[in-house]
Amino acid sequence: MKNYNFTKTVITLLSLFPLVSQAEVCLNATCRDLIQKREAMFLSHSNQHQKRLNQLSNMKIDEIGDNQVIEVYDILSKSQERAIQASAVKLLSHWQNELAGAPIITPTRATEFKTKQNHRFQLFALDTFTVKDRGTFVSGMVFQGSIKVGDKLILQKADGTDLVTRCLSLETINLPEVQAGAFIVMQLENLTEQDIQQGDALIII
């Protein structure tokens, strides 16, 4: 395979695959385009799986059919590592073009919740950490809507559990409110670091 020189990976997709209702659109369009151009690659913690993913990554777009898509989903669902790695600039550029004018991919249950402005807010957890004497923080990108300090949230977990929390602070240059596209660190109320896993969704209520 071609040697890849990637900048820092900024998007993690593995944990979203079991949750999103339009993941196939994402894989068929954006990811397959990036992979075909050798600007992205699938990743797996298993050497055996990685070998097969490398083979799939080298296939031409018109050779990747439904069976290959299903196979990729199956492999990625068993992996504990990043699913797709690419240049931050190239990946975000392709992503924004692909989703221009289209609904943002959302967890299937997220449609049950609306913000006060009658549009959905959502953030997918990428990392969590605890600060002594302050509490639990989660980092991630705001995919849709906006959030401000004091907003009440539902943490939607992959196992179907919903936990109620509140945004206590936003640590992006100390702004009182952030909107879609911002990468933020948010302090949450009444949750521990162990309550949150990568890919869990935060939905405003």
UniProtKB/TrEMBL annotation:
Residues 1-23 form the signal peptide. InterPro entries: Transl_B-barrel_sf (IPR009000). Keywords: Signal. It comes from the Bacteria. This is Selenocysteinyl-tRNA-specific translation factor. It comes from Alysiella crassa. The lineage of its organism: Bacteria, Pseudomonadati, Pseudomonadota, Betaproteobacteria, Neisseriales.
